[in-house]
Every structure is written in C-alpha cells, then in structure tokens.
C-alpha cells in the first residue's frame, strides 16, 4: 500500500499550545502542538455541530470548541467536557527534521 504519511507544515508553523487547520483529500484535520512540544492530530470538526476546532482554544491537553465550549483531550480524542459526548478520531503524527506529517489512512 502507498505511504499514507502526508506532510502538513513546518514545525514552527504551529506555536506551542496552539492548533492549526489542515485540509486534505476533502477532509479537515486539526493539528496541535502541546506545551511539552509534542504534536497531535484529530478530526478538524467538533463532533457536536461540526465547527472547526482550529478556531478553538488549546489549554494543556485539551481543545475547547469555539461554539459551545465543549472540550476534548486532543491526545486521545476523548470528549471531556459537555456538551460534547462523542470522541474525536485521532491520527498518528511524526516529525522528521523540521516537518510535521500525519497518517490519514
Ligand atoms: S459545536 Fe462544538 S461544542 Fe457545540
């Protein structure tokens, strides 16, 4: 099977404790850089009402949705704050050199 690692951006394009939106193959993803300088990826849309999570706020290990302030653990995808109750899908991430990659399939 073809290599499904997709280059997202340079490491420095994401600030620590921040998130960016990444669109690929008709889907949208959210790519996070934690306060510990690790990188993570989830589906880009909130499981509550399909709002872009990249417009939300990263606090420690959580992303807060900008619409109703639902929260997810972006490392595990777990829904941790109402009104969200459906977990987010997560994706493997790797850093090679200065670039961030996600595995989407
Ligand atoms: S749309 Fe995200 S919490 Fe409602």
Automatic annotation (TrEMBL):
Identify the residues that the record assigns to the Rieske domain, covering every copy: 5-102
Name the source's superkingdom: Bacteria
Pfam families with a match to the protein in the record: Rieske
Q: Which Gene3D superfamilies match?
A: Rieske [2Fe-2S] iron-sulphur domain
Which UniProt keywords are present, listed alphabetically? 2Fe-2S, Iron, Iron-sulfur, Metal-binding
- Classification via InterPro entries: MocE_2FeS (IPR012747), Rieske_2Fe-2S (IPR017941), Rieske_2Fe-2S_sf (IPR036922)
The GO terms describing molecular function are: 2 iron, 2 sulfur cluster binding; metal ion binding
For activity, the cofactor(s) needed are: [2Fe-2S] cluster
Q: Which family does it belong to?
A: Belongs to the bacterial ring-hydroxylating dioxygenase ferredoxin component family.
**Protein name from the UniProt record:** Rieske 2Fe-2S domain-containing protein
């Amino acid at each position: 099977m073809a290599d499904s690692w997709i280059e997202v951006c340079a490491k420095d394009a994401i600030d620590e404790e921040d998130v960016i939106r990444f669109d690929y193959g008709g889907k949208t993803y959210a790519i996070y850089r934690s306060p510990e300088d690790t990188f993570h990826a989830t589906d880009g849309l909130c499981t509550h009402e399909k709002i872009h999570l990249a417009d939300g706020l990263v606090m420690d290990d959580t992303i807060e949705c900008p619409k109703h302030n639902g929260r997810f653990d972006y490392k595990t995808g777990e829904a941790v704050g109402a009104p969200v109750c459906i977990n987010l899908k997560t994706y493997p991430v790797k850093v090679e050199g200065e670039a961030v990659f996600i595995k989407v399939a």
